[in-house]
Amino acid sequence: MLDVALDAHVSPETLRKIESGRVATPSFPTIAAIADVLGLSLDAVWAEISRPGPGAEPAVSGHRAREPLTA
């Protein structure tokens, strides 16, 4: 963890806070730097954080779910 923090140019304490959820909304440059150090694309990070939790309905990007069409 120390190496990741130092390579991403963030303090180890900041990385611990992000990891534990005590920093709810880390800045984009911080997330981009950490992802780069870990060899992750930002697309992969986004896919991971936008997955619905257990029992949650999948989100429909930008639109409300429609009722099924009836004939």
Descriptive overview:
It contains four helices and no strands. With 71 residues, it is mainly α. It has a domain at 2-49: lambda repressor-like DNA-binding domains (434 Repressor (Amino-terminal Domain)), CATH 1.10.260.40. 7% of the residues are buried. The mean pLDDT is 84.
What would a concise description of this structure say?
This protein has 71 residues and is mostly helical. It is 48% helix and 0% strand. It is globular and about 40 Å long.
Reconstruct the topology from this structure.
Elements: H1 2-7, H2 12-20, H3 28-38, H4 42-49
CATH topological fold name of the domain at 2-49: 434 Repressor (Amino-terminal Domain)
The CATH superfamily label of the domain at 2-49 reads lambda repressor-like DNA-binding domains
Q: What characterizes the major β-sheet?
A: none
Average pLDDT score: 84
The number of strands is 0
Strand content: under 5%
